[in-house]
Amino acid sequence: MKLVSFLSVLLTALVPCMSASGQAAKPAARAVKNSKPNVIFILVDDMGWGDLDSNWSQQKLNGRTVDRKNEFKTPALSALAREGIQLRRHYSAAPVCAPARASLLLGVHQGNSRVVRNNRFDHPIEDSHTLGTVMRDAGYDTAAIGKWGVGGGGESHGPVTGGPHQRGFNYFYGILDHLAGHFHYPSESRDIFEYNGYASNPEWKNIKDKVPQTAYSTDLFAARAKQWIVDQRKSARKTGKPFFLYLAFPAPHGNLVVPGTPYPSGGGLKGGLQWVKKNGTESVNTAFDAKAEKDKDTYIYPDNARFPNEVAKRHSTMIRRVDDAVADLIHLLKDLKIDNDTMIVFTSDNGPHNEGGADPKHRHGAQNPQFFKSYGMMDGIKRDCWEGGMRVPTLVRWPARIPKGQISLQPGQFHDWLATLADAAGVPVPARSDGVSLLPTLTGHADQQKPGIIYSEYNVGGKTPGYKDFLGEHKGAERGQQQIVFVDGLKGLRMGVKDADKDFMIFDTLNDPQESKDLASSKPELQARMKAAALSNRRASLPSKTVFDTALVPAVETKGAASPGLKWSLYEGEFPWVPDFRQLKKQAAHGVAPSPSVKMNGPRKRGVELTGYVKVPADGEYTFYLSTDANKGSKAFVRLHGMELIDADKTYEPGSEVSSDLGDRKNPVYLKAGLHPIRIGYVGNAGPASKLVLKWQGPGLSKQEIPASAFSHDGGAE
Question: What is the 8-class DSSP label of residue 155?
Answer without folding.
Answer: G
